[in-house]
Amino acid sequence: MIPAHSRHTPSDRGPPITKQLELTMAAETTLIILKPDAVQRGLMGRIITRFEDKGLQVCGAKMMQIPMSLAQTHYADHKGKPFYDGLVGFMTSSPVLVLALRGVGAIAICRSMMGATFGSQADAGTIRGDFGVSNSFNLIHGSDSPEAAAKETGLFFREGEILDWTRANECWVYDLSGDEPE
Ligand code: IDP
Ligand code: MG
Q1: With contact defined as beta carbons under 8 Å apart, do 135 and 119 qualify?
Q2: Does the N-terminal or the C-terminal CB of the chain have fewer CB atoms within 10 Å?
Q3: Mean pLDDT of 32-39
């Protein structure tokens, strides 16, 4: 139990540190990549806005051109499939924006916001459904499980590049009055 007199962060007058800790422990951090087509088509801002509007927190952001070796590691599960060479060629062809997004249930929330893999089949209202028609140029990657999220955030971000920070409006994004953030 943290004593009452030290429940506030020393550096500012932020929310009680016990509530921050509960939220940090309950939240997931997922890896999102805005793929070369999203960057080239000038869709970065609109896609990030969707995640921010939803209430997800940006904890890491990095623009990069993915080296071939990293693309191959990231998509290792797809090696041998007919689209694999095209996929790693596409992902390394032009800059991407890599994001670490945090929130309670962030992995599943981001996957549902992305929509089905093929732009031609993704529902209207999803990122892939609203911004694309192509099946291979499908704008966005998102981790599909807690194991994948841990592995992928470690592949794309170095120690210290994903930040723990508290949003000023956190207590209006989640109900923090109970034992768990809701
Ligand atoms: P996901 O991105 O929705 O998780 P995965 O099945 O993991 O979909 O495939 C990884 C990526 O490989 C897709 O996002 C897409 O860019 C590409 N891809 C998957 N299946 C095909 C295909 O049949 N043709 C072309 N590209 C594909
Ligand atoms: Mg996948």
Answers
A1: yes
A2: N
A3: 99
Percent of the chain with pLDDT over 90: 85
For ligand 1, is residue 141 a contact (CB within 6 Å)?
Answer: yes
Q: Is the per-residue pLDDT at 27 higher than 60?
A: yes
Active site residue 141: yes
How is the chain split into domains, by residue range? 25-157
- DSSP codes joined into one string, 128-158: HHHH---SS--SEEE--SHHHHHHHHHHH--
Which residue CA neighbors atom 12 of ligand 1 most closely? Answer: 87
- Distance from the alpha carbon of residue 132 to the mean position of ligand 2, in angstroms: 17
User: Distance from the CA of 167 to the center of ligand 2, in angstroms?
Assistant: 30
DSSP 8-class letter at 67: P
Q: In CATH, what is the architecture of 25-157?
A: 2-Layer Sandwich (3.30)
